[in-house]
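Deliverable D5.2: sample structural annotation.
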Amino acid sequence: MHATLPLMRRYGFPSIRRARLETLQVNLGYKCNQACLHCHVNAGPTRTELMSRETIVDVLAFLEVSGVRRLDVTGGAPELNPHFRELVLRARALGVHVIDRCNLTILEEPGQEGLAEFLAAQKVEVVASLPCYLEDNVDRQRGKGVFEKSLHAIRRLNVLGYAADGGELQLNLVYNPQGPNLPPPQAALEADYKRVLGERYGIRFNRLYTLANMPIQRFGSTLVTRGEFNDYMALLSRAHRDENLATVMCRSLVSVDWQGHVYDCDFNQMLGLPLAIEGRKRVHLSELIGHDLDGNPIAVRDHCYGCTAGQGSSCGGALDG
């Protein structure tokens, strides 16, 4: 695995600072039932890192005291953490809106019986990876048979009321480019997804989020191996738009790793760039209770151009349009 952080000081991303904290994004571990080429976490079936129950208690304590009302749960496959359902139940009891970053195929895995029904009962927003509406493209990127399993999972969610007209259960899909390219305009691609998936497979969803592939971990290492890293970084830098700086996700979100340490975003977590407070090298979530982050400087490197290039890219999809 090639380290890409040393390669990310060429272009000098603009300095930015935090606004009011609105979202706590928590990585419950790097274990996953898939090993996707574009994965910036380098997650997979052989990873063993999982958040402990003690750290999950810290997460819940922070939510209760801070007043943050959006919990964005990710992984790996976050559902593989044995404490996933307890976290969701207790967060919902606090009145927190929960987002599950779901790879869809996890709903079909042994031991996950009743997971789809649990998500629906708790009114969890599902943000599901489906990097294309064509079977060959998805299977090439994520593994043979993943497309068909993903469609089956979406149908299960639809039966439970996800993406129903006028319903409150939200199902949003995520698109990633196949390689070192910027994603196309989000609105037009969303229309294509809805037309093709609706007409061919009879499934529905609410929104499509288009995300740029980040040049870190597995994807970044692949770019280095193929001699494409510098070209991709140049593409991201050329496509930077200053107007996207105001709405990048790191201004209103913090990312928590499986051990409870805090970062400005999930990408910085994977690069080992911790959130900086008062000169400390690393901060635990429990130390943030009662601490106002508004105005705090954000740790930036050249990978940040992946969030400001073109339409912009964040956990909620394009920033512009």
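Annotation notes: The chain has a mean pLDDT of 89. The CA atoms of residues 123 and 169 lie 6 Å apart.
The annotation will be released with the project's public dataset once the embargo ends.
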